[in-house]
Amino acid sequence: MEEIISTIIFAKAYGIYFTIVGLGLLTCPNRFRSWYNDILVEERRVIFGGTIALLIGSFIIATHNIWTSDWRIIITLIGYWGVFAGAGSLISSKFISLYKVMINSGDIIYRLSGIAWSALGIFLFIQGFGL
Question: Which one, out of 23, 86, 118, 122, has a CA that is 20 to 30 A from the CA of 112?
Fold first, then answer.
């Protein structure tokens, strides 16, 4: 029962988050491109972002390490993604350069990413809120 509650809470929160970020990517690609570029040129932003990603990812894994063959695994994978991205950003100064691909991408890539993020967000929103 406790696992179901944490799954629902994470689905609601990430449903809202991914939907809004997806809409931002879809409608304001230049804003995100500029933000990514700012992160790359300021080491402190990489360290801060890596710390936050590692903390959130670790929290998700600690409370929701559920390996099932249904939609709930998405929450667990988000946790592992946060740990991987956060640890990579803190351990290696070169890790963040992997994101240069996104900065150099055209608006269509940002917009397609926005569609994908929004679709994931809407899916999690529906699962979380039981719509």
Answer: 86
For residue 33, give Cα distances in angstroms to 6, 39, 64, 78, 90: 33, 10, 32, 22, 22
Q: Position of tokens 């998405």?
A: 74
Residue partners of 89: CB distance under 8 A and separation at least 6? 46, 47, 49, 50, 53, 54, 95, 96
Displacement of CA 88 from its chain's centroid (Å)? 15
Over residues 22-50, the pLDDT tens digits come to: 999 999 999 998 888 888 888 899 999 99
Which conformational region is residue 70 in: left (phi greater than 0), alpha (psi within -120 to 50 degrees), or beta? Answer: beta
For the entire predicted model, the pTM comes to 0.87
The pLDDT confidence band at residue 131, using thresholds 50, 70 and 90, is confident
Q: What are the structural domain ranges in the chain?
A: 2-129
Residue 57, burial from CB neighbour count under 10 angstroms (0-12, 13-18, 19+): buried
What token pair was written down for 19? 């939907």
